[in-house]
Amino acid sequence: MSEHKPHRIKDIFVDGPIDPAFIATSIAKHATRTDIGAHEIFLGQVRADAVERANGEANAGATPGQARSDNAQVTAIEYTAYRDMALERMTAIREEAFTKWPSMTCLHVHHSLGTIKAGELCFMVFASAPHRVAAREAVAWVVDRIKAELPIFGREVLSDSTHLWKTNS
Amino acid sequence: MEVLLFGMIAEKAGVDRMKVHAASTHALRQLLAEKIQGLEALSYSIAVDRTIVHNDVPLQGHEEIAVLPPFAGG
Fold first, then answer.
1. A3: in domain
2. Helix, strand, coil percentages in chain B from 3-state DSSP, rounded to 5
3. Between A84, A88, A152, which is nearest B73 by CB?
4. Contact call for residues A145 and A109 (beta carbons, < 8 A)
5. What sign does the dihedral B47-B51-B54-B55 (CA atoms) show?
6. A111 contacts in B (CB within 8 Å)?
7. Does residue A8 lie within any of the structural domains?
8. Could you give all domains of chain B from N- to C-terminal order, each with its CATH number?
9. How far apart are the CA of A157 and the nearest CA of chain B, in angstroms?
10. What is the pLDDT along chain A (169 residues), one digit of tens a residue?
11. Residue of chain B nearest A61, judged by CA positions
12. What total of structural domains would you count in chain A?
């Protein structure tokens, strides 16, 4: 079950939220790989951020005539992506990760598309290695690279029926 | 050439693809600013054949061009 196949583009996108049961199954599948001694998993969850609207941001996400609350919060994120570019970037990031952490046994990445409600999981990076340091470092690095480089877009649906566009800082 | 639009830029334009003729990425930016109201106020990148270009790059017309607002993955 070698997951490291250079130049092969793997699809990372899933429609809808990531099911916790899928994660459990994914962990269980590694039981046969007895050279693994450490799993590291990052899970991204949609947060019900309160939206602070500064003065002058009066029309953010509101269509004319639409009521806007001053204390709206995020109820869901609708994810879209430039799929072909995202998968190409991901393939390059994956290959770089295996070069940086050659002991890493496998790396699994999943990102949601579509509407993900607050409290649901939208992102998973799962690395396994013989020892914990490689797995831990690789996951942190891969998460940061994905957030910075994959063309994924998030429309935040707010509790007052307006919306904003999420931007990674 | 056909330009792919994403996220808030597709929303502003009201379409997710647009036919334009531009000889360079710089010319493309000027053209898009005329066609999409409010685009100049937004920060966005242009990808040519799925790679973001920072400088002015000549375009032949057969490239895959995409206009990308800030990323929000994760």
1. no
2. 30, 25, 45
3. A152
4. no
5. negative
6. 73-74
7. no
8. 2-68 (3.10.20.30)
9. 13
10. 445 555 578 899 999 999 999 999 999 999 999 999 999 999 999 999 998 775 545 445 555 556 677 789 999 999 999 999 999 999 999 999 999 999 999 999 999 999 999 999 999 999 999 999 999 999 999 999 999 999 999 999 999 999 999 999 8
11. B8
12. 1
Looking at the domain assignment, is residue A55 inside a domain?
no
Contact between B47 and B63 under an 8 Å Cβ cutoff? The reply is no
- The predicted model scores a pTM of 0.91
In this prediction, the answer to ipTM > 0.90 reads yes
Q: Which residue has the tokens 């904003």?
A: A164
Asked, for residue A2, whether it belongs to a domain, the answer is no
**CATH number for A89:** 3.90.1170.40
Q: Using DSSP, state whether A149 is helix, strand or coil.
A: helix
- Domain range for A17 is 13-50+71-166
